C-alpha cells in the first residue's frame, strides 16, 4: 500500500457553455484533485461527484492545510474501498460552488466585479456536461465508474442517462430520482433564511463588504436537522442541558442555549457561515429542486432509464428520512424493468442521511467488493 498521491489543478474552459436555463457562460474554471495514476489505456478513472457543501478535496490532508481532511477520506485512498493504488480518482468542484471553480464569487469578465446575483442558475445536467468536458480534456473516453452520495448520486444517475456509453459503472448512494415536496420545502425555508438576511443585499453583498451570516447559520441549522436521524440525535444529545461544570442543572427560563442539541446546531451554523457562500447555497439547493430527469418522459422513470448501459450499485440507509430507501428502490425497480444490471443494498444504520459519509464496515466492505469486481473484469 502506497502513500496517497494527490494533485490539484485549475482547468480553464474557453468554449461557451449553454445552460438549461437558456443562459450561456462565456468561459469558466473547474478546480480538480486527482488521486492515484491513470493507466495506459485510461480505463481506471473514477469520477467522484460531491454533494451540497463539499468540494474537489475528496481525500487526504489538504496540501495547504494539513488539518483539512478530504470529505470522503474514509472511502477513498490507498487500500481503502475505492483504492487509489488501483484507480485514478477525480474529485472536482462544481460550477457555481465557492471553492475555486467559477461561481458567484468569481469576477464577471463583462463587469470586472463578482457575479453575485448575476451568476446563472445551474442544474445537475449542466454540471454533468461540464464534467464530460473535463473528461475530454483529460483524454478519458469512458469512466470505470461515476460515484456520488446524495446530490452526488443524482449526478451519477444523470451521467448514466446523458452519456450512457461513457461510464461502465454508476454508483448511487443515499440519493433519489427527484426531490419530494417535503425536501423542496426544507430547501425553500433555508433559502428564505438567506434571502431575508439584511446583509444579503439581493445577492450582491460582496460590494458591501458584508456576509449574510445570520441567514447562512439558520440555513445550515435547518439542513443539519434533516441529515441526522431521530435516534442518532437522541443518542448524541437526548434532552441534556448545556451547562458548564458545576453549574445548576435547573432550567434558566430564557431563550439562550438550554439544550446540548441547540448548542450543537448553533456551532454547526456558525462554522458553516465562515466558509460557505450564500449565493452558492441558493444555487445548489435550487439544482437539487430542479433535478427530475423523468420530467421530459412524462414522469416515467422506466422510460428515462431505458437507454442506460452502465451497471449500477444503489445503496440506501434505513434511517435516512431525507432520501429514504423507497426512493432508491424506485431507481432499482426501473432498472430491473429495463433489464439493466443492478445491485442494491439497504444498510441498517442509525445515522440518518449522513450515514453515507461515516465509517460503517458493512457499507465500506460492500463498496470495496464492488470495486474489486471491476478490477477482476478488467483483468
Automatic annotation (TrEMBL):
Compartment(s): Cytoplasm
UniProt GO molecular function: homoserine O-acetyltransferase activity; homoserine O-succinyltransferase activity
Positions contributing to substrate binding: 220, 354
Superkingdom of this protein's organism: Bacteria
EC number: 2.3.1.46
Biological role: Transfers a succinyl group from succinyl-CoA to L-homoserine, forming succinyl-L-homoserine.
Subunit structure: Homodimer.
Name of the protein this chain belongs to: Homoserine O-succinyltransferase
Naturally occurring in which organism (per UniProt): Polynucleobacter meluiroseus
Amino acid at each position: 500500500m502506497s502513500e496517497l498521491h494527490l494533485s490539484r489543478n485549475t482547468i480553464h474552459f474557453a468554449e461557451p457553455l449553454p445552460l438549461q436555463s437558456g443562459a450561456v457562460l462565456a468561459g469558466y474554471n473547474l478546480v480538480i484533485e486527482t488521486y492515484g495514476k491513470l493507466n495506459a489505456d485510461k480505463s481506471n478513472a473514477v469520477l467522484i461527484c460531491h454533494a451540497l457543501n463539499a468540494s474537489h478535496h475528496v481525500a487526504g490532508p489538504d496540501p495547504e492545510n494539513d488539518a483539512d481532511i478530504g470529505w470522503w477520506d474514509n472511502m477513498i485512498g490507498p487500500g481503502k474501498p475505492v483504492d487509489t493504488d488501483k484507480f485514478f480518482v477525480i474529485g472536482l468542484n462544481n460550477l457555481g460552488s465557492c471553492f475555486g471553480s467559477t461561481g458567484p464569487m468569481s469576477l464577471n469578465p463583462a463587469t470586472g466585479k463578482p457575479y453575485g446575483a448575476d451568476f446563472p442558475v445551474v442544474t445537475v445536467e449542466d454540471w454533468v456536461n461540464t464534467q464530460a468536458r473535463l473528461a475530454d480534456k483529460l483524454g478519458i473516453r469512458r469512466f470505470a465508474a461515476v460515484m456520488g452520495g446524495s446530490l452526488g448520486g443524482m449526478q451519477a444517475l444523470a451521467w448514466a442517462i446523458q452519456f450512457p456509453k461513457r461510464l461502465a459503472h454508476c454508483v448511487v448512494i443515499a440519493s433519489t430520482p427527484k426531490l419530494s415536496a417535503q425536501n423542496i420545502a426544507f430547501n425553500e425555508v433555508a433559502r428564505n433564511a438567506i434571502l431575508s438576511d439584511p446583509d444579503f443585499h439581493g445577492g450582491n453583498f460582496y460590494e458591501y463588504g458584508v456576509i449574510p451570516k445570520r441567514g447562512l447559520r439558520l440555513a445550515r441549522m435547518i439542513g443539519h436537522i434533516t441529515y441526522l436521524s431521530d435516534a442518532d440525535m437522541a443518542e448524541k444529545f437526548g434532552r441534556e442541558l448545556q451547562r458548564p461544570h458545576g453549574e445548576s442543572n435547573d432550567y434558566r427560563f430564557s431563550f439562550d442555549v438550554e439544550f446540548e442539541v441547540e448548542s450543537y446546531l448553533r456551532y454547526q451554523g456558525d462554522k458553516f457561515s465562515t466558509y460557505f457562500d450564500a449565493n452558492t447555497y441558493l444555487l445548489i439547493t435550487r439544482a437539487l429542486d430542479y433535478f427530475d430527469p423523468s420530467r421530459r418522459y412524462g414522469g416515467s422513470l422506466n422510460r428515462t432509464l431505458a437507454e442506460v448501459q452502465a451497471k449500477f450499485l444503489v445503496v440506501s440507509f434505513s434511517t435516512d428520512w431525507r432520501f429514504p430507501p423507497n426512493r432508491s428502490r424506485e431507481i432499482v425497480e426501473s432498472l430491473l424493468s429495463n433489464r439493466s444490471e443492478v445491485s442494491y443494498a439497504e444498510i441498517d444504520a442509525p445515522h440518518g442521511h449522513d450515514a453515507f459519509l461515516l465509517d460503517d464496515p458493512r457499507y465500506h466492505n460492500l463498496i470495496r467488493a464492488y470495486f474489486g469486481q471491476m478490477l477482476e473484469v478488467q483483468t
